[in-house]
């Protein structure tokens, strides 16, 4: 490389020394790990201490494994007033043999000025240095000076100085790999303010496409764990994504920052022992996300707490024990008064039934004796099953959905919580035998309903560990703008103390529950503290010409929102290709884009109705193409349904038949906005139908 910074070699030597110490530290941890034997020997306390020690060392080893990621990405030089020190900033802390810092963790307080210093507020810095690296190799350096040493030429975007413009542009120009990369070396000031925001309460982050809201939220999770190791390490941190494709896309970010203990999940993962796939139609999805389902489930549980229709008569030899049906009404009423959940009252109900049998026994025997004598009789088992069965969420909801009568009873006939006939019909699905309930496949929209059922029925007797709802010290929710009130209620239930980071873009709310603003979402989240709101206004990912096109779509998708200001003012103009053979034209353009130089990955974004047809078109042409979400983004070309592409970024986006996207999606303009804002390099649309008016730009439309 020509015209390199003159101090590259000196910085390379420092980085090499840091890597040597990192390896020495790792070897020390390996040796220590090998000396520990976790087994059955010793007391329970000794075994527990060994296991904890072993786990701590294992975690440390994971932190020290950087793979091919660069350890160090910057340096700060402080003024005399600030202590006149120099610190290299990196992913994790590395110290010399005498405990002097070689690398400072990016989350440490001393590193804050690396992200926050500006020309007007230099925070004690005289110089900030940015490294351009590949793995262990320092390729170049970029210096910013402050105070008397400051030079002209600072880059300002949307009223904010752009930190390390050269390093940022280099990072933005790198090809995508199919997995989200961290931005720890190029975090900008408005992003850093969010990352380092306080732990408590709900923080809402509104961010348009390309503003880095997802990666900022993940860096925030890493920062909070570093800063509040106690108590968060014990309480747990949960990151919720919209689908499995998204989780696969982001799964390497937190480990790259030295945090491997964060739970990444979709909502379905929070429900034990259920299989989930697919979504319902919009009518069913809408009602299943409505808070009226809370009342429906409450009434459905009460409908399973039933007095006997007649007196209970239990044969006992030549005699019979009779318990009046009215006694069952008393027991049910008392059980409801004493216990919060259905299953928690089961033992009480059983005990009361045996007490009633004993009270009506001609010989005046004890309840325990009656239980031994007739507890397994078919009459007693049927009476208990009818009166107060042990329920699982799957059994309750499956029985409810499978019976129009149960749906009608649980819905109620009038009042604000009642469901209409059409809404009741939308919930119905044919009942299946009980033996297949465990293997039943539920929809994504069923998940919050099952969770509400779990809250109402509670843990089964002797199965508390399997059924309990786990809470977390902090919850990060990405793409939160699509969550229904029931889904938000599900997340609130898992918040230990109301500490949450909620991230999304109202303009990209495309599901069955589109929200007009964040107030609609916040009313369903914890209210222990006043929520804080912030917005990311600068777009880093999307080239200016593509963002200009997306801004025209945004006028129709969310007219009250402003598009982010793009850092990348230059870039390829969006290209529109008209073709008479849509599939062949799509294959041709995708292959062309994939083969042009170092194109990176290509996403072919298609209407849901065309996924099979377009994917088969690649196969017929002899072109290997992945299919999302099954294959992630691991192939050079991947066919992605428009409904799962949200949150992803690719080098090239080929949007297929925009008119069909508008015709099929429940939130048409917002779905097209999402499709048009995925590409970091080039955007093109292939169409056989006329282009929607919001996209028509004659100057860049071509017809082969």
Mean residue pLDDT: 90
Counted up, domains total 4
**CATH homologous superfamily of the largest domain, by name?**
P-loop containing nucleotide triphosphate hydrolases
Distance between the termini: 41 Å
Shape label: globular
What is the CATH architecture assignment of the largest domain?
3-Layer(aba) Sandwich
Whole-angstrom Rg: 30 Å
Number of helices: 27
Read across the widest sheet, the strand sequence of neighbours is 23-24-22-25-26-21-27
Notes on the structure:
This protein is α/β, with parallel strands linked by helices and 704 residues long. It folds into 4 domains: 8-186, no CATH class; 199-295 and 391-538, Rossmann fold, CATH 3.40.50.300; 305-387, no CATH class; 544-702, Rossmann fold, CATH 3.40.50. Helices cover 39% and strands 17% of the residues. The strands form 7 sheets. It has a 7-stranded parallel sheet with strand order 23-24-22-25-26-21-27, with helices on both faces. Strands 3-4-2-1-5-6 form a 6-stranded mixed sheet, sandwiched between helices. The chain has a 6-stranded parallel sheet with strand order 11-10-16-17-9-18. Helix 23 links the parallel strand 19 (538-539) and strand 20 (565-566). Helix 6 packs across helix 7, helix 17 packs across helix 18 and helix 24 (582-595) packs across helix 25 (611-620). The radius of gyration is 30 Å and the shape is globular. The mean pLDDT is 90.
């Amino acid at each position: 490389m020509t015209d390199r910074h003159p101090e590259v070699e000196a910085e390379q030597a420092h980085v090499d020394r840091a890597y040597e110490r990192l390896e020495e530290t790792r070897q020390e941890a390996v040796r220590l790990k090998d000396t520990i034997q976790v087994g059955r020997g010793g007391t329970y306390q000794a075994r527990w201490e060994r296991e904890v020690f072993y786990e701590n060392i294992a975690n440390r080893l994971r932190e020290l494994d950087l793979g091919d990621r660069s350890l160090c990405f910057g340096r700060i030089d402080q003024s005399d007033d600030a202590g006149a020190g120099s610190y290299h900033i990196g992913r994790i802390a590395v110290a010399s043999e005498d405990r002097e810092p070689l690398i400072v963790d990016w989350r440490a307080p001393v590193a804050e000025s690396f992200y926050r210093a500006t020309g007007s507020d230099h925070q004690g810095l005289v110089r900030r240095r940015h490294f351009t690296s590949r793995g262990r190799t320092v390729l170049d350096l970029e210096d910013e000076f402050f105070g008397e040493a400051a030079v002209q030429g600072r880059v300002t975007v949307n009223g904010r100085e752009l930190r390390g413009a050269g390093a940022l542009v280099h990072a933005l120009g790198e090809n995508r790999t199919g997995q989200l990369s961290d931005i720890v070396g190029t975090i900008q000031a408005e992003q850093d303010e969010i990352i380092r925001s306080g732990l408590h309460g709900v923080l809402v982050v509104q961010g348009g496409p390309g503003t880095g809201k997802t990666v900022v939220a993940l860096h925030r999770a890493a920062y909070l764990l570093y800063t509040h190791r106690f108590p968060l390490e014990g309480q747990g941190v949960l990151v919720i994504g919209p689908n499995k494709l998204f989780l696969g896309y982001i799964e390497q970010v937190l480990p790259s920052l030295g945090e491997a203990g964060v739970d990444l999940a979709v909502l379905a993962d929070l429900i034990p022992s259920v299989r989930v796939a697919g979504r319902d139609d919009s009518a069913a999805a809408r009602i299943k996300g409505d808070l009226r389902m809370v009342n429906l489930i409450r009434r459905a549980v009460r409908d399973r707490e039933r007095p006997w229709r007649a007196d209970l008569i239990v044969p006992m030899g030549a005699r019979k024990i009779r318990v009046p049906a009215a006694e069952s009404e008393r027991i049910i009423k008392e059980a409801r008064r004493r216990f919060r959940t259905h299953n928690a009252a089961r033992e009480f109900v059983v005990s009361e039934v045996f007490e009633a049998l004993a009270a009506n026994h001609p010989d005046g025997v004890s309840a325990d004796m009656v239980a031994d004598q007739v507890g397994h009789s078919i009459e007693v088992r049927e009476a208990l099953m009818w009166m107060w069965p042990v329920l699982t969420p799957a059994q309750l909801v499956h029985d409810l959905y499978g019976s129009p009568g149960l749906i009608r009873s649980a819905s109620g006939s009038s009042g604000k919580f009642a469901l209409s006939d059409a809404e009741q019909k939308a919930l119905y699905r044919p009942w299946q035998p009980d033996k297949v309930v465990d293997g039943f496949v539920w929809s994504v929209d069923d998940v919050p309903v099952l969770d509400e059922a779990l809250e109402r029925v509670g843990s089964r007797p002797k199965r508390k560990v399997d059924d309990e709802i786990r809470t977390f010290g902090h919850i990060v929710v990405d793409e939160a703008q699509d969550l229904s009130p029931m889904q938000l209620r599900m997340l609130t239930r898992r918040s230990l103390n109301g500490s949450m980071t909620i991230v999304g873009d109202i303009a990209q709310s495309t599901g069955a529950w589109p929200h007009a603003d964040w107030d609609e979402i916040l009313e369903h989240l914890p209210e222990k503290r006043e929520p804080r709101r912030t917005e990311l206004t600068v777009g880093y990912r999307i080239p200016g010409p593509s963002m200009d096109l997306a801004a025209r779509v945004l006028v129709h998708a969310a007219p009250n929102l402003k598009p982010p200001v793009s850092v990348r003012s230059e870039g390829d103009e969006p290209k529109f290709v008209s073709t008479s053979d849509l599939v062949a034209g799509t294959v041709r353009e995708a292959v062309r884009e994939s083969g042009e130089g170092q194109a990176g990955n290509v996403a072919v974004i298609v209407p849901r109705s065309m996924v099979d047809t377009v994917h088969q078109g690649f196969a017929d042409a002899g072109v290997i193409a992945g299919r999302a979400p099954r294959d992630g983004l691991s192939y050079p070309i991947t066919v992605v349904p428009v409904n799962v592409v949200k949150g992803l970024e690719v080098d090239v986006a080929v949007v297929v038949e925009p008119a069909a996207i508008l015709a099929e999606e429940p939130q048409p303009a917002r779905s097209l906005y999402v499709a048009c804002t995925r590409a970091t390099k080039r955007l093109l649309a292939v169409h056989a139908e006329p282009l929607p008016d919001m996209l028509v730009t004659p100057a860049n439309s071509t017809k082969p």
